[in-house]
């Protein structure tokens, strides 16, 4: 069974290795929507995979590191593509939430997104 929790954050970034003259080389901002999925068997006694309060606490700690930051200044996000943001969020949550199964990062204004199913998936 899978459960999910969403969070939103706003952040600036630029892509230093984009082609010369490409708008992505200039600093700009996005509103991101992130969906974190956890997978597991609901415990027999509680009927839940994981307390949503636990999930909320952990994803808010991650959100705090991203929201209203310049993503390029965050260690591990020096070249902050959607793909790297998704993997960075996964890495930040994998220890506190070992049931993690998927991270979706949506950039609604661009109608784009990335789905990451972990280092063992493509
Ligand atoms: Zn961008």
UniProtKB/TrEMBL annotation:
Transmembrane segments: none annotated. This is 6-carboxy-5,6,7,8-tetrahydropterin synthase. Its EC number is 4.-.-.-. It comes from Parvibaculum lavamentivorans (strain DS-1 / DSM 13023 / NCIMB 13966). The lineage of its organism: Bacteria, Pseudomonadati, Pseudomonadota, Alphaproteobacteria, Hyphomicrobiales. The keyword Lyase applies. Zn(2+) binds at residues 13, 28, 30. The keyword DNA damage does not apply. Catalyzes the conversion of 7,8-dihydroneopterin triphosphate (H2NTP) to 6-carboxy-5,6,7,8-tetrahydropterin (CPH4) and acetaldehyde. It comes from the Bacteria. It catalyses: 7,8-dihydroneopterin 3'-triphosphate + H2O = 6-carboxy-5,6,7,8-tetrahydropterin + triphosphate + acetaldehyde + 2 H(+). One of its GO terms (molecular function) is 6-carboxytetrahydropterin synthase activity. Belongs to the PTPS family. QueD subfamily. Pfam families: PTPS. Keywords: Lyase, Metal-binding, Queuosine biosynthesis, Zinc. GO terms for biological process: tRNA queuosine(34) biosynthetic process. SUPFAM superfamilies: Tetrahydrobiopterin biosynthesis enzymes-like. Its cofactor is Zn(2+). Pathway: Purine metabolism; 7-cyano-7-deazaguanine biosynthesis. Binds 1 zinc ion per subunit.
